[in-house]
Each structure stands twice: as structure tokens, then as C-alpha cells.
Design goal:
170 residues; mainly alpha; 3 helices
Length: 170
């Protein structure tokens, strides 16, 4: 049975022959009622505080759950970002390797063309040298022939030229 301070104050006792002193009982009941009232206020205050603290605890638990979810999402996002970055880096590396291979291939092709051009130019040079040697040899042979021949004196040469080509009349 739950007692209230009012019930304690209004409690009546039957009187017996040698019963309790009514004033003392009344004073004691009043003291008990006041202490009970005081304790009841403390209990009510503590109950309100418990309700308030439970509400705050619930809020904090929701915030903790939200923070944990946010942290997990951030970790997942970070992991995805890291994975994406690694994947992107691999793609860039593969593209760079392919580009490097292409550059090397182009360089080798250019070297091959240049070697071919050099061989062609060397062949042309060799042909030119042969022609020049032949020309020089033929000129040397012509000089030798000219030196070996005895030419007629100049007057006879002029005479022969005039006989072949008479001067024109004026």
C-alpha cells in the first residue's frame, strides 16, 4: 500500500486505556509526513532526472549510431576512393607504357629509315665518285693524247681553218 504525506497526517488511531499520547503520535506522524513528503519530492526530482537522462542517453545513442554509420560510410568511401585511385593509376601506367612503346617503335622506325637513307646516300656518293674518277681519267687520257700529238704550227692551222671556212665578203 502506497502512503502519501496527507494520509500519514490524517491517520487516526483508536484510543485505548493506556494508549499512546495523542500529541506525541501526532507530532511524530507530522515529522514522518514531512520527511516522507521531502523524500517523495526527491524521488520525483530523481525520476524526472532519470527520464531526462534517459532521453539524453537515447539522443546520445542515436548520435553514436549516426556517427558510427557516418564513420563506416567514410571508411567505405575512403576505401572506394583509394581503390579508384589505384585503378586510375594502373590505367595511367598502362597508357604511359603503351605510349612509351609507341615512341620507341617510332624511334626504331625512324632509325631504320635514316639507315636506309644513309645507305642510299653512300651508294649515290660511291656512284658519283666513280663517275668523277671516270671523268678525271678520261680527261687525263685526253690530256695525254693531246700532249702526244704533234700539232701543226699555228699558221698552217689558220690556213686550214680559212680553207674550210672562207671569210664572208663584205
Amino acid at each position: 500500500m502506497k502512503l502519501t504525506p496527507l494520509e500519514i497526517r490524517k491517520q487516526e488511531f483508536s484510543k485505548g486505556m493506556r494508549g499512546y499520547n495523542a500529541e506525541e503520535v501526532r507530532a511524530f506522524l507530522e515529522t514522518v509526513a514531512e520527511q516522507y513528503d521531502s523524500l517523495q519530492r526527491v524521488v520525483n526530482d530523481l525520476s524526472e532526472k532519470v527520464i531526462h537522462l534517459e532521453s539524453r542517453l537515447s539522443d546520445f545513442q542515436r548520435m553514436e549510431k549516426t556517427l558510427q554509420e557516418t564513420l563506416m560510410k567514410a571508411e567505405e568511401s575512403s576505401k572506394r576512393s583509394l581503390d579508384d585511385s589505384r585503378h586510375e593509376a594502373e590505367i595511367v601506367m598502362r597508357e604511359a607504357e603503351l605510349e612509351a612503346k609507341q615512341i620507341i617503335s617510332n624511334a626504331h622506325a625512324k632509325v631504320d629509315r635514316l639507315k636506309s637513307d644513309i645507305l642510299m646516300l653512300q651508294a649515290r656518293r660511291d656512284g658519283f665518285i666513280k663517275k668523277l674518277k671516270y671523268l678525271l681519267q678520261s680527261q687525263t687520257d685526253l690530256i695525254d693524247i693531246i700532249e702526244d700529238n704533234n700539232f701543226e704550227p699555228e699558221e698552217e692551222l689558220d690556213k686550214e681553218i680559212h680553207e674550210e671556212h672562207p671569210p664572208a665578203a663584205n
